[in-house]
Structure formats: C-alpha cells, structure tokens
C-alpha cells in the first residue's frame, strides 16, 4: 500500500497596476519616438536641437497619456467582448475619431502658437488643415490602448479564475481530509475501547497500559491542532504511539519494524495517513492469525519519488524458515506529479473483506 501527497506550488501575481504599466509604456514610447524623429532629421541634413525635439514629442505623447484614463474608463464601461460587442465597437470607433481629432488639434494649436513669428504668424486654417490631415495617429493610439486594456482585463480574469480554482481545490482537499479523519478516529476509538473492556477482567495491568497509551495518542493528535499536513517524522511518532496500543493488545504476536530514510523525515504528509494502513493490516492480517506476525513501515526517497509502504507478514515458529506473505504492496510515486485518484481493484466496503474496509477506503480516497 502506498500513499502520495503533492502540493501545487503557490501562485504569485507579478502584475503591476494597470495605470502604472501604461505610464511606463507611454514613457518608453516617448523616448523611442523622440530618438526616431531626431535621428531622421539628422539623416536628411537638417539642423536639430535636442531640446525642441524633446519638448515637441513630450507634448505629443503627453496628451495621449492624459487621454488614456478616459479611454480606460470607456474600455471598462463598454467592453469589446460580450453580447453587445458590435454596438460597443461602433461607439469606440466614434470615440476614437473624436479623441484623434482632439489630440491632433491641441498639438497643432500649442506648437504653432509657440512657433509663431512675425514672418510666420499663427494662422487658423493651417491648424485645421494639419489636424484633418494627420489625426489618424490619435485614432490608432486610441485602439492600441483599447486593445491593451481588453487584453489586460482578460488576463486578469484568467489569473483570478486560476487562483480561485486553486483555492477551491485546496478547500476541497482540506474538507476531504477532515472528513476522512473523522471517519478514522471513531473507528479506531471503538476498537481500542472494546479491547480495553475485554482486558479489564483478563489482564488489568495490560488494560491500564492500553489506557495510558490511548491517552498519549489522543493527546498527541490533539496537539497538532487540526493541521492537515505534518512532517513525516511527526507522523511516525504518532504511529508509534498507536502501535503501542496494538502491541499491548496482541503481545508477542505483533512485531513492528520501522525503516524510515533520514532524508524523508522532513517531507509533509497528510496527518494520520499511515494509521489506516497499519490498522487495515492488523484487522485483516494479524488479527486472523494465531501465530506471530510482523508489520514493516517503510519510507524512502528514490528518483524523485516518496514511497510510503506498510507490509505485514506471518512469522514462522522458531527454527522454521519464513515464507513471505505480504498483504500490501508498495510502488513509487513521483512527488512532483499532480495527484491522481488512487483506484482500488474492487469497490471499498465496510465489510470484512480482506484488503478493504475503512482503512484502505480512506487511504484510496486520499
């Protein structure tokens, strides 16, 4: 019997605020646009001063940046995805024309006013001609912002859905583990109390020992405070406490052997994941034999796999060769693989069919 537990890595949102991203984008675009225009004038032999170019391109890009919050508002108010995308797209086309015209008009108005001289005075018709002739740049910029906002929102929803799904999976796993634990503990307590009631008359000293061991086990499990996962070393401690109870019950008939690799002790596993396996081995193996039996609990790491195994076998009488009789097999399971449901060869029931029952039923569900 084997068990695995893998926890998906925590997801981190590396996104920066949307307005910050657009501000950075416009800054980079302004620098690129200024360098491109400055280099072009030098290549055609025109005199060029860095200051005027920087001021002119900063005005051009700055007005686009000022318009961006309003474009983002319209993008959120009238999304281009959805049932009304046709109507919303038409509205954005109209808005883009208005934005493009207004942007170019303000740029021409300011630049021509600042450059006006007695020889080249400010003329309104020139402003209108330049605006009508080159307002398409503002229209293009509007749709760039619109599409970027749509992509940003779509990616944000995708990330939110992934995060929500991860939380739901974690909540579901926690609920399943808690349900299984609530099933295991009453079953174990019933068996232990029943054994104590029998020993009270037959062997009072053994009954007192079992009561003390049960107290230690319950105290240890309550100390964990309902944690879903614990280190394997702590899981082994809890299992040893449980096995003290069973060894009191079976006496010399039960021999226990642990084989826990040092490098596996720090790995987190579901709390009380081994106890149902051991209980199943005792219930369907050792308790049905009259001779001596051995339970082996093994934990190893190999090729990126964590292997938890519980085996039980009958031991021969002294002087008789041992015949292995494992009632449980183990197989390596990669730790970094996504957990897949463990399927039993037959449906788990609560009857007395060997290899089934609440112990393996819980383990298979985990």
From TrEMBL:
Q: Where is the composition biased (Low complexity)?
A: 334-350
Disordered: region residues: 319-366
Describe the location of the Signal transduction histidine kinase internal region domain by residue ranges: 175-254
Q: Which domain of life is it from?
A: Bacteria
Question: What InterPro entries would the database entry show?
Answer: Bact_2-comp_sensor_kinase, HATPase_C_sf, Sig_transdc_His_kin_internal
In its keyword annotation, does this UniProt entry include Transmembrane?
yes
Entry keyword NAD: no
What are the record keywords, sorted?
A: Kinase, Membrane, Transferase, Transmembrane, Transmembrane helix
Gene Ontology terms: cellular component: membrane
Q: Name one Pfam family in it.
A: His_kinase
Segments passing through the bilayer:
21-38, 58-76, 88-107, 127-152
Q: Which GO terms describe its molecular function?
A: phosphorelay sensor kinase activity
Q: Which SUPFAM superfamilies match?
A: ATPase domain of HSP90 chaperone/DNA topoisomerase II/histidine kinase
Q: What's the protein called, per UniProt?
A: Histidine kinase
* Native source organism of the sequence: Eiseniibacteriota bacterium
């Amino acid at each position: 019997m084997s068990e695995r537990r893998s926890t998906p890595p925590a997801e981190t949102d590396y996104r920066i605020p949307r307005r910050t991203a657009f501000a950075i984008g416009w800054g980079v675009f302004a620098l690129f646009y200024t360098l491109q225009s400055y280099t072009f004038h030098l290549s055609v032999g025109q005199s060029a001063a860095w200051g005027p170019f920087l001021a002119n391109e900063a005005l051009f890009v700055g007005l686009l940046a000022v318009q961006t919050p309003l474009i983002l508002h319209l993008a959120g108010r009238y999304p281009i995805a959805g049932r009304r995308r046709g109507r919303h797209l038409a509205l954005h086309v109209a808005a883009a024309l208005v934005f493009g015209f207004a942007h170019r008009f303000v740029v021409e108005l300011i630049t021509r006013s600042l450059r006006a001289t007695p020889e080249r005075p400010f003329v309104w018709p020139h402003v209108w001609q330049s605006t009508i002739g080159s307002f398409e740049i503002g229209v293009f910029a509007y749709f760039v912002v619109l599409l970027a906002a749509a992509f940003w929102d779509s990616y944000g929803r995708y990330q939110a859905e992934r995060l929500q799904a991860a939380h739901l999976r974690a909540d579901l796993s926690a609920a399943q583990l808690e349900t299984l634990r609530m099933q295991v503990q009453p079953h174990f307590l019933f068996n232990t109390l029943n054994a104590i009631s029998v020993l009270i008359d037959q062997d009072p000293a053994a009954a007192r020992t079992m009561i003390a061991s049960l107290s230690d086990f319950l105290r240890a499990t309550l100390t964990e405070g309902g944690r879903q996962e614990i280190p394997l070393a702590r899981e082994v401690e809890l299992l040893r406490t449980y096995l003290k109870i069973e060894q009191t019950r079976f006496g010399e008939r039960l021999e226990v052997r642990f084989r826990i690799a040092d490098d596996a002790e720090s790995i987190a596993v579901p709390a009380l994941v081994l106890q149902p396996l051991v209980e199943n081995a005792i219930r369907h193996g050792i308790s049905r034999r009259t001779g001596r039996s051995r339970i082996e609990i093994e934990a190893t790491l190999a090729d990126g796999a964590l292997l938890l195994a519980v085996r039980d076998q009958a031991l021969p009488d002294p002087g008789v060769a041992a015949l292995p009789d494992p009632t449980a097999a183990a197989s390596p399971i990669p730790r970094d693989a996504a957990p897949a449901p463990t399927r039993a060869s037959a449906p788990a029931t609560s009857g007395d069919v060997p290899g089934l029952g609440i112990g393996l039923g819980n383990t298979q569900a985990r």
